[in-house]
Design a protein that fits this description.
mainly beta; Elongation Factor Tu (Ef-tu), domain 3; 2 domains; 6-stranded antiparallel beta barrel; 1 helix; about 5% helix
């Protein structure tokens, strides 16, 4: 991902290139704490925030580059320079790109294609709907790859498997924003059924 032009090779990214961690900005065992069992990070690792469930989990938001301060195998902090903490303003989860050797421009290109969705399998306005704050410019038939799901039934594909965007809606008015989409196994195919409410993270690869 350090070579020129790598920003267009999104389909080579896999779930293992990302982590999803729970942030507690008020502090638990330490101030500005992130928790993820067996996170595999060490002091000095670079992470880029590419999505967050609630604005403020990562101070600076999507695209922020941070340096890891490892506290234990399941906890870490984010810093600007190895010592100055990014404290955030809200509790919640965030998705990070493992960024060692990754240029900022590449991380930003990837972040623009991340779709953090809340799945509603029983239907809201639409059955099996993924509602999201960033639909990433997705249109019918676009290919998306699953990076994370909070429970087995939240998405009807496995991690690193691909699906297709179906019936995306992106409506912005003076008082509300509505962005959601469904998924299909083939472009234009039947809607994939889901069996649980929860969160999923998709990468738009086409």
């Amino acid at each position: 991902m350090v070579d020129s032009g790598m920003a267009t090779r999104f389909d080579e990214l896999v779930a293992a290139d990302f982590i999803v961690a729970l942030g507690d900005y008020t502090g638990g065992a330490a101030e500005a704490l992130f928790t993820l069992t067996s996170h595999g990070l060490v002091d000095g690792d670079i992470l880029y925030c590419v999505g967050q469930w609630i604005n403020g989990v990562v101070l600076g938001g999507v695209g922020t580059r941070a340096i890891v301060n490892e506290l234990s195998s399941s906890t870490f902090q984010l810093t600007t320079d190895g010592t100055t903490l990014l404290t955030g303003t809200a509790d919640g989860s965030a998705i990070f790109l493992k960024g060692n050797g990754v240029p900022q421009r590449v991380a930003e290109a990837i972040a623009a294609r991340i779709m953090v969705g809340g799945n509603d399998f029983t239907g809201g306005t639409v059955e099996d709907m993924n509602f999201t704050s960033n639909i990433g410019g997705a249109v019918d038939g676009d290919t998306i790859k699953l990076l994370y799901k909070s429970a087995a039934g939240v998405a009807n594909v496995a991690a690193d498997a691909s699906a297709f965007v179906k019936a995306p809606v992106s409506t912005v008015t003076a008082t509300a924003v509505a962005q959601y989409f469904q998924t299909a196994a083939t472009a234009g195919g039947a809607v994939l059924d889901t069996t649980a409410d929860g969160t999923n993270v998709w990468l738009k690869t086409s």
